[in-house]
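Write out this protein's structure.
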Amino acid sequence: MNTTPVAVADLFAEPAQGSVDVHWSAFLDGPTVFEVQRAERWDGGYTAVSPRIDAAGKTAFHFVDQSAWPGTEYFYKVGYLIAGAWHFTGAIRIQTPAAIFALSTPSPNPSRGPVRLGLELASRGAARLEIFDPAGRRVRTLVSATMEAGMGSAEWDGRSANGEAVATGTYFARLSSGGKVAHRRLVVMR
């Protein structure tokens, strides 16, 4: 009896801000590897967005495509290698959410060390991310650049512009771009 060495089932994708999580399950009759491919058209132009994924001993798989742009339609396929030849599933369509303007909660907060600040821009443009003390004095500029729409991040090491450690207390992160402004409070502990 001739059996199919790989049967892929339950292929689906979940769009998120800044990524697409592709899931599938497979029933294997022998060794194989998988590869996730993406295109911006249903009928072609597919390229690999994942490394080769070893299927040994597994039946459930996922890959997070972190190169997806906000507000974009994509088509995904999963390829599998059998006896030196690639075979592919049908394509699934995903629409990534449009980018928004946001400054995420600093992490960790409070902090005794570096603080990560996630940010998102709705459109390409000049952006500034600055740290201020409670009196409104700029302590440090973390970002001052033209940035693409989408997600990004910056890290503050708890130091002022001249390199000195700031005092214990409350500080404010301020993101500005395209006439929009967002603030977040953060606490430094020494």
